[in-house]
Amino acid sequence: MKTVILDTSFILNAIKNHIDIEQSLKTLCPYHINISILDKTLNELENKPLSSIAIEIVLKFNIIKTSKQKSVDDLILDYVKTHKNTIIATQDKELKEKLKKAKIAIITIRQQKHLIFV
Predict the structure, then answer these.
(1) Percentage of the chain modeled with pLDDT above 70
(2) Measured between alpha carbons, how far is 37 from 57 in angstroms, rounded to an integer?
(3) Domain segments of the chain: what residues?
(4) Looking at the whole model, is its pTM more than 0.70?
(5) Residue 106 region, left (φ>0) first, then alpha (ψ -120 to 50), else beta?
(6) Which DSSP symbol is given to 30?
(7) For the stretch 1-40, what's the b/e string if a residue is b when 16 or more beta carbons lie within 10 angstroms of its beta carbon?
(8) CATH architecture of the domain formed by 2-117
């Protein structure tokens, strides 16, 4: 089983573009996946546009507890170093570049309507 971690940018863009996150990920990935977010992502979602909808949606996913006081991007990068079966869903350009260098699978939204692997 692979874990798909959703980044804040991905969640907000999916909601804005009316993408069913869970269904779209299951369609894209031909294997069993565990959709997750980091606990700090909940903090990032607060006070963002569409935050109440976003929080309601992501609370049904697995929440990974973190103990370090770092940015969500840094926590994601730390997590993938020790958990090799992880895919990151993000729209964040800088994070994508760092993940590509580390050879981590990335899912992104293409043409505001469907998900692709980068």
Answers:
(1) 100
(2) 11
(3) 2-117
(4) yes
(5) beta
(6) S
(7) eebbbbbbbbbbbbbeeebebeebbeebbeeebebbbbeb
(8) 3-Layer(aba) Sandwich (3.40)
User: Two tokens at 33?
Assistant: 């996946």
- Please give the helix or strand (H or E) that residue 36 lies within, else none: strand 33-38
Which single residue is written with the structure tokens 């907000």?
Answer: 12
24: region left, alpha or beta (phi > 0 left; psi from -120 to 50 alpha): alpha
Q: Nearest CA to 72 among 39, 109, 96, 49?
A: 39
Q: What is the DSSP string of 73-86?
A: HHHHHHHHHH-SSE
Confidence of residue 102 (pLDDT cuts 50, 70, 90): very high
How far apart are the C-alpha atoms of 90 and 111, rounded to whole Å? 14
Q: Provide mean pLDDT across the span 55-71.
A: 94
Q: CB of 39 within 8 A of CB of 63?
A: yes
